[in-house]
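Entry type: protein chain
Record version: 2
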Amino acid sequence: MAASPMRRSDGAGVGRAADGALLQALEDYWWAVKPDDGLPARHDIDPLDVPRLLPWLYLIDVVPAEGPLAGERPFRYRVRLFGTGLVEKFQRDVTGRWLEGLYPEPHISRMIAGYDEVIAARRPLRADFVIPVEGREFLKFRRVACPLASDHRTIDMLIGVHDYPR
C-alpha cells in the first residue's frame, strides 16, 4: 500500500464545522489504502479507521448495464449502503435501490454522469449537487466518490461521503 502523510486513521479533524473536511478525510484515506499498482478494494477499507465518516458514507455497486440500457450507458448503480446521517438528510433510506428513478431529471442523469466520470478517471472526484427532497424545496450537498475494485483493477464499487455546506 502507498503511504500517505495525510492519512487520518482515526478521522481526527473531521467535523461538521469545516466545509469539505469529510470529503478530504475520505480522499486522504482512499489514497492511504490504495495499492501502488492498482485501486483499493472494499476489503481494504476498515470502518474503524474512519468512524466519524460512517454516518455520511455510502457504497454504490457498479453493475455493467445489460439489454436496452447497455446502449445508453455502460453502467448501472445500486446503493449498497446509505449512512444514517444521509438517511436523515434525504428523509429516506435508499439502500438496495437503483439510482434510476430515485430523483427526477435532470438531477439523476447528472448523478449518474458523475459516477461514470469517477470510473473513467479511476480516482476520487468531487461534485456539487442540488436535488429536490420531500419536505423541503431542495437539498444542497457536496460529495466525493472514490472507485473500488475487488481485483484491484476492475471497478465494481464506489465509496463516497456527502458534506453539507453551511
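Comment: Confidence is low (pLDDT under 50) at residues 1-18.
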